[in-house]
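Appendix B, Record 12. Input sequence as logged:
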Amino acid sequence: MEGVEEKFSEAMEIVNRAVRADDPDECAKALRVFTAIQTDIQSVFDICLEDIGEVRVMLENLAPKIAEKIQEIKNRA
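Logged structural output:
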C-alpha cells in the first residue's frame, strides 16, 4: 500500500502543478501523467476489492463453523 500512497501523493502534486501552470502544454502534460498514475492506482484498488470479496466469502463460509464451535464449548462448560 505504500506504493499506492506514494503514487497518490505524486498524482496530487501533478494536479496542483497543472492547476497553477499558465502554460497549456504544461497542463496537458500534467494531465497525461496524472491519467497514467490514476490507471496504475485503479488496478491496485481493483485487486484489493477482489481480494476483499474473496475474504468475505471465506468468512461467510466460516461463520456457521465458528458458531458451531462456540456452541460446543458452551455445551461442555
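The CA atoms of residues 20 and 27 lie 9 Å apart.
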